[in-house]
Amino acid sequence: MSISPNVPEPREPEHNIYEATPTPRWIPAVFVLAFALLGYLLYAGNTSKTMLENELAQAASKEAVLTVQIDQTNSRVADLKGQLEVTTQKLGFTQAELGQARSLAQNIRQSQKESDDKLTAQIGQVKQDTDVKIGQVSTDLTGAKGDITATKADLEATKAKLTSTVGDLGVQSGLIARNQEELDALKHSGDRSIFDLNLKRSKTPTRVGPIQITLTKTDPKKFKYTLTVVADDKTIEKKDKTADEPVQFYVKGATHPYEIVIFEVTKDKVTGYLSAPK
After folding, report:
1. What is the pLDDT of residue 127?
2. Domain range spanning residue 182?
3. Which terminal residue of the chain has fewer beta carbons within 10 Å of its beta carbon, N or C?
4. What value, to the nearest 5°, has the Cα angle with vertex 50 and ends 45 and 51?
C-alpha cells in the first residue's frame, strides 16, 4: 500500500472586495458655486462690453459733431479773413498812412498828458490857496469868537445894571432900560415884547405894536413929556411924565400892564420903548 504524499487541496482564488467610499457633500456645492461664478463673470463681461460699445458710439457721435463745428468755425474764419482783406482794400490804408495815424495818436496822448499835468498843478495851487484862506477864516472865526464872548460879557454886565421900579399906576414894573445899551440887553432877555419908540411931536398918532401914540409936549430941561395913548378905542392921556418912569396902561385881554419908558427927551422928540407882556 502506497502512501500519497501530502498534497494540499486546491483553494478557490480569493477576491478582494472593497466598499465604495461615498462622495463628499462639499464637492457638488463647489461645482455649483463655480458654475454660478462663471455665469456671473460672463454676464458682467457682456454688460461691460455693451456699455463700452455705447460709450464708444457716443464718443464717435460727439467727435462727428465737433468735426462739423470745427469745419463751420474754419469756414467763418475764412469768411472774416476775406471780409477783412476786402475792407482793407476798400479803405486803402497804406503803411505810411497807418504810421501817420499812430503818430497822431501818440501826439494826442502827449497833449492830453501835458493838459492833465497842467490841470493837476492848477488844482494843487488852488488847494494851497484854499488852505491859506481856510487858515485865515479860522483865525477870523477865533477872533470873532473872542469878540462874541466879550460882547456876551458886556451884555451880562449891562443886564446887571437894569433896575426895576414902580410904574405910574402903582404896579411893580419889571426891569427897565435907561439907555440904548440897556435896551439891547433888555431885548435879549426875552421876558417881554419890546418895540422901539422914536416919537416926534405931532397931531397925528403913530402906531406902535397894538396901540397908537401921539407925542403932544416935551420939556427937555425938566426931562418931562406928555403923550396920548389910544388902546382898545380908549384914549388915555399921560401928562408931564418923567424920563425913566414906567408909564403904565392896560390893554384888553392882558393880565399885566403895558409900559412906555422914555429915556431921552429933546425939544421936539422922545426916544424910548414900549414893553408889552408876552
Report:
1. 80
2. 162-277
3. N
4. 100
Which strand (E) or helix (H) includes residue 21? none
Is 252 inside any structural domain? yes
Judge whether 131 lies within some domain: no
CATH of the domain at 239: 2.60.98
Instruction: Please give the distance of CA 193 from its chain centroid, rounded to a whole number.
Output: 43
At 167 the pLDDT is 85
Number of domains in the chain: 1
Cα distance between residue 6 and residue 183, in whole Å: 188
Dist CA 232 CA 212 (whole Å):
10
pLDDT at site 23: 60
Amino acid at 103: S
Q: Burial letters for 105-120: b for 16+ Cβ neighbours within 10 Å, e otherwise?
A: eeeeeeeeeeeeeeee
Higher per-residue confidence, 119 vs 196: 196
Strand 269-277, strand 258-265: pairing: antiparallel
Beta strands in the chain (DSSP E): 163-166, 172-176, 192-200, 206-208, 211-219, 224-231, 234-242, 247-249, 258-265, 269-277
Nearest to 270 by CA among 234, 231, 244: 244
Is residue 228 in a domain? yes
With respect to residue 215, please indicate whether it lies within any of the assigned structural domains: yes
| Confidence (pLDDT) at 263 | 95
Nearest-angstrom CA–CA distance, 270 and 217: 10
Burial class (CB in 10 A: 0-12, 13-18, 19+), 132: exposed
pTM over 0.70: no
Closest CA to 278 of 249, 252, 255, 244: 255
- Cα angle value 14/17/19 (rounded, 5°): 170
